[in-house]
Amino acid sequence: MDDVTMSLGDRFFRTYERARTGLKIIDIGAQDVNGSLREVAPAGCAYVGVDFMQAKGVDVVIDDPYALPFPDGEADMVVCSSVIEHSAHFWLLFNEMVRLLKPSGLLFINAPSNGTFHRYPVDCWRFYPDSGRALQDWGRRSGFSDLLMLESFTSHRQRLGMCHFTAVFVKDAAHGPDYPARIQDTYHRYTNGLVDGATEFTRMRRKPPGDIGYLREQWKLLLGKPI
Predict the structure, then answer these.
(1) What are 67-94's pLDDT values in tens digits?
(2) How far apart are CA 83 and CA 96, in angstroms?
(3) What are the CB-based long-range contacts (under 8 Å, 24+) for 91-95?
(4) Using CA atoms, how far apart are residues 32 and 57, in angstroms rounded to an integer?
């Protein structure tokens, strides 16, 4: 887990916790590798870390990521950071994570939008700006008819690291008004932002920050030259 990933998890909790206590949070892929979102979770929450092996940060060891050992509607929040790129069938894992949520529950996903090949144990996917709405539509087709994506965006690159696609979903759109704030309200190192109800991206970029083409465009802007 790099600094950007940890920061985005922290921003998610601070934006969406609404100062509630006693939250149940399930972390999918929770093994502490250079950090864990448990470190920035709200105080007083019941935090359950799930992964394939017993390790630091793991409370529940699973064999099948597509059949998570929790009942429907168990969680206030499910978080999944730097994991779904390593899931061979991420769409099935996505449905399982939504299943775990209460109607007012939130799903936080963070995954690479670019970056080097890194198997853990496999490395299958990258997620682009339309991925959030695509996942919303997939969830609805899968039976979660009221699923709503509250926001999605792509973070800037950290040094030579990755850009991170981030999305937040609420299981039942009727609870969308319960969460008026968005990470994008206070976080500005992003491109290709979407929020619920919007039809256009904010800070739209075809090339990710850190890409040589993006840097060239920014240099021309600074020099006052047309792109």
Answers:
(1) 999 999 999 999 999 899 989 999 999 9
(2) 14
(3) 91/135, 91/138, 92/66, 93/28, 93/65, 93/66, 94/135, 94/138, 94/139, 95/138, 95/139, 95/142, 95/144
(4) 5
Report the relative pairing of strands 46-51 and 24-28 from DSSP bridges.
Answer: parallel
The SS3 assignment for 149 reads strand
What contacts 24+ positions apart, CB below 8 Å, involve 41-44? 41/13, 42/13, 42/17
Q: To 10 degrees, what angle do helices 90-99 and 131-141 make?
A: 70
**Fold adopted by 3-223:** Rossmann fold (3.40.50)
Q: Cis link prior to 103 (omega < 30° from 0)?
A: no
* Contact indicator for 168, 152 with CB cutoff of 8 Å: yes
Mean pLDDT value of segment 127-144: 97
Q: Is the pLDDT of residue 1 over 90?
A: no
Whether 63 and 33 have beta carbons less than 8 Å apart is answered as no
Q: What is the pLDDT of residues 142-184, one digit of tens each?
A: 999 999 999 999 998 765 568 899 999 999 999 999 999 999 9
Delimit the domains of the chain by residue range: 3-223
Query: pLDDT at position 10, please?
Result: 96
Structure tokens belonging to residue 149: 């994506």
Q: In the chain, pLDDT over 70 holds for what percent of residues?
A: 89
Report how far apart, in Å, the C-alpha atoms of 16 and of each of 9, 95, 99, 121, 161 are: 11, 21, 19, 32, 27
